């Protein structure tokens, strides 16, 4: 019998400082979720946390950012401009596989004979110990296994994996095998495998579609113990090459052998281990991909082989040291301290770690909704990136935010084509995509979500405001702002009341669709129009290049100024969209707890017309466009919408938490904080197996900074209204602001603002609860936290939908 | 060279009295359209007007009402309650095929040798004459061909086809071949063929999907010259059997031979024809289908064989005579006289003929949108039936209307299941179906069109009002009324203003979707609720059976009375839906004529939010719920909506014509009348190849009776406000009203009302331009037509979209 110990999901005892995510036991029921949690990446290469031996798996995954195949979309009833193809993420060759077979000397039937022995497989034999640890400072996953085969041959195996942050194409694994009590014959096979089996698609419409055997072999190469495989995709026309280079340290008498079978290169190491012996195999893998029409297969093979060899030359200890150094530098800004709640301390570090490793500072790559941790949403980039992830990375790693915005800019041609196809103007960025073209197969909740345009524009404005990067603004920034603004100006219309309206769109909330004047969309479009006007005026040469004249700018300003803001005077609340508060209510009393998420139990026909909200929409508008609302409006709106928001989307908890904190409901804010922070570590949505929810993880940082820290930077003015949750003794976080690192520490005694890296002449101006402060490199500033005004009783959530109390 | 003469689409000279549709020449470019025009049917069997020889074809078609296969529906993004299977009409075995090969005595290479000779094919050889005539009184299609083969062998071929109105399962064809100037060796093959090739689906989303080889062979039988084929469908589980029985009359020396190959039974007749000789082959075909679990293959084969033999026993002249008698009886009520416009005289008779042959008076069969004339819309039944076709057939052939309503009643279980699935109450009838389940693959323009429920209820109420059929009301009628009303009561909601609202539905106009309070839907739902309340009160035992109590009835009445009616006070017009008149206008000035239909050139994102209307919606409400509007409102509404309706749907012209006539724009009404009447004869929408537009054809009768005759029967009160178009000297039509045939004749001298079949004591009460009249079997009544009030200038249509002027 093999043993299953329960997973240990909390930060644990004194020896564990909140920097390590540890799971013990085989935990076979949660394989998929564990693979996501233990995923490693560097914004270019992503390895899911699959077991070294590959099987059993929830879902294998070894991804390259942007590497994808396409599939046909067919519609029961097709329509004009319905996308006919969709990008789908597929794995590159899997270089993470190390399989082990064991036999005892007595049952070997001749060397290289018919029996390979018994494979290490957690489903068989006896598992004496099994532990995996994600070390958030070292940037590695370590695994220790103590296992006896069904025939009783016992081995200790440990592996260490990393995906190198400094070396973009490189990932590596060190695999160590020891015999425990008796000699064991072992065969260790390090595989490089293309077209690994992927489990079938589930019935859940939110899951990924699966393309089997997406890779066609183009070339292979062996050089001693090293190998290269080159494949291509048939429809997307991409070529992908992976090289593996090895180091083997083994007792005398071990044999090594490399061979190919179709779609697989294998290095096999075979020999006898006695107790005390140690077999160590280190694999250095390097990945590249390019359009088929670009670099040739041979050139790509040369390239990855050179990169793998360079990694081997640096050596595994060197890679580990460089990884640590890169993370130390990142954590200096990114670390969040939460004294008083070890579980959430760990969770928020876990969240930030995955954000840090999801993007790249160099080039023009973005971050898909699941990062490179799974194939959920087909690996697509959605508005999650600009709406949730970049608002964090702009503060923590602005180069990564810039890279992601450059990716949008690189796909401006496709967005312009899409706008023309939609009979609009400017650019219509895709609702979901990998390669830049719209891949949404349900337009009411896809192409109609035009707010993605404004989310991108907002991310540009925010990036420029936080960094002061005028060069970016003058180049890609102004292009993005102008072309997105042009869409709004064409799309909207003037009504008799003198207002500018945006009708027939879908806002963030996916339980309504095709509404008039979605408040979030209107306010974000207003910001987009004004931002484009400002940028075009500030950069007249760029404006001229884009054909912008004064009349066009005036048109944007007029539309932005006259943008309609739906408000219900009778109820004293803003409307999520025109008429929203007059829609029928949801019958919560007759909705059972097992009918959530509602979209799996009720038709859109019911959902769309009722006041039931999947995710923060108007509440998100109150966060992103904070200056458009008074404090009283925020309080009333928050209460009204909290009662109708079921949080069937993981995008909801974080903005709700921030607004709950702002309007004074700190306990509710804290419980919502826990929900967003634990989304994947506790698999709250039962969907983490498909990949991590990066927006939810980003939300954890946002709640700390914006909810507890009260951070806002509307119109480039940095302000804090800190509030310390009852549960916490200390909250600390940092952000980069115009070249400086600003550290904010909240304790019951007050808020401390400091610039730890700055020189004496450096200064940052900020506002603390309405007081203007100057923080300099010389002088940290501390101010007391004002007492919280009594916000009254907590607004009700829908029955059964309040977040769990902590 | 073969010759192409142009098609002759007008009623022609003095010899052609408007009862014959004649096409000459090969007309190969219009094959599909011609096949639809020359389609024959009897509401059970439908034969498209394919050439006897089968090829070339636009699309082969031999249909049985209700016989279908199913296909999987797959969605790029699936959703709750999205239908997973769709019914698709497929052909039964084709028994209409008679192929001819000719050779001269000199090129025969031995009898039965390798060469079959040259096939009669209009694409080869020389076509001296080719004529097809649909005789609307005889109920047959006659074809004459005078053709020389490429080698110069000349034959005259004539065929006569009928699908028997009195004999439900029977169709027949008589095929005659003569040599013209020299002896010719001929081989005539009468085929019975399953799984005939069907052309591929086009890109047009409105076209049918194609299932290849839908029939699986189960049994075959030969008996002398006669044969039977039995097949089944795999997914829908239906069994279909076709028998063919033959008579051959040939000169001496001819040989006959019957054989099978897979999926085909063939009777071959071979011999030499000398000038003056005549070969005559008559085929009698009989069709039945049944669920696979019902009648066995052998039993079904017995049944069809017996029916084919019985038809042969009656003989072709007997079938012709019975066909003529059935049509004489039908035309007595159904004929429409239009003196002054031979083209439209012919067109309206053509329209009525196709309506008459589309349905069956016996049983419980309905009429698909294309009848049995093509596979457009996958052969589905849509709301066209209750919305357009039954309003006519209730007057002309009420037994057929009853049969169609019984079909709805038979599928009440599926509609109840669907309502439960949609989390609603009562019954939710499908937007499109063959077998009774929802087959719509695009829910915003499918399942959201809940008005189909009210259309069915209205058809019940109208049928009962026109016939006085209390027995139907007490049985199926009350079931249909109650279950449809229950859906509205559950679906709607009360608002603070005390009104009852229906939000998030799609009305008739498919260029808007998911709107609040669609006026048509609301008024029809009001009628539905009140009709259910009345019926339940009148039939308490039926109400008790359905669990209806007084409180439920009171709820229906309250909802109906409080139903919200959207009205724009500022513009003084009703709104198609709440807020419609405040939506942005369509940019007609920048829409080119080749961008219609708009749905093929613009996304729904643009169409849905603008004031552009595909088809009559509010205007249809003014026809169907005439009493809900004042005359002044009708005039203002008509003008407002006429300017925004592009008529991209063939459902639009007829109701617009009726309302144009009512508000006094008779020239516009007449031009719209021509558009609906010529929809298929002139293939105005370029879509007639997929089958005839039965709703458009029904519209032709509706314009005569409701537009020119001013016929209304709101609340069971029969009224006429006749207006004679300038172009016409005389308009006459009849209708059945509570067991009587009422004939109405309009001339410049006045309107004459008579009961030609009634006895002296029989009477019908009606209103003529507000005057109450009693028409009895004794005494026709004539009243003058009042002068038309000046309605002012004709309201503009969208640029370029006014119907052609006659």
UniProtKB/TrEMBL annotation, chains A, B:
Query: What Pfam families does the entry give?
Result: Glyco_hydro_65C, Glyco_hydro_65m, Glyco_hydro_65N
Q: Which UniProt keywords apply?
A: Glycosidase, Hydrolase
GO terms for MF: carbohydrate binding; glycosyltransferase activity; hydrolase activity, hydrolyzing O-glycosyl compounds
Q: Which positions fall inside the Glycoside hydrolase family 65 C-terminal domain?
A: 711-775
Where is this chain compositionally biased, Pro residues type? 784-806
Where the record annotates domain Glycoside hydrolase family 65 N-terminal, the positions are 24-287
Binding positions (substrate): 383-384, 614-615
Glycoside hydrolase family 65 central catalytic domain: residues covered: 349-701
**Highest taxon listed in the record's lineage:** Bacteria
Which parts of the sequence are annotated with region: Disordered? 777-806
Question: InterPro entries given for it?
Answer: 6-hairpin_glycosidase_sf (IPR008928), 6hp_glycosidase-like_sf (IPR012341), Gal_mutarotase_sf_dom (IPR011013), GH65_N (IPR037018), Glyco_hydro_65_C (IPR005194), Glyco_hydro_65_M (IPR005195), Glyco_hydro_65_N (IPR005196), Malt_Pase/Glycosyl_Hdrlase (IPR017045)
List, from the UniProt record, the residues annotated as the active site of this protein.
510 (proton donor)
User: One biological process GO term for this chain?
Assistant: carbohydrate metabolic process
Q: Which family does it belong to?
A: Belongs to the glycosyl hydrolase 65 family.
Q: What is this protein called?
A: Alpha,alpha-trehalose phosphorylase
Q: Which organism is it from?
A: Micromonospora olivasterospora
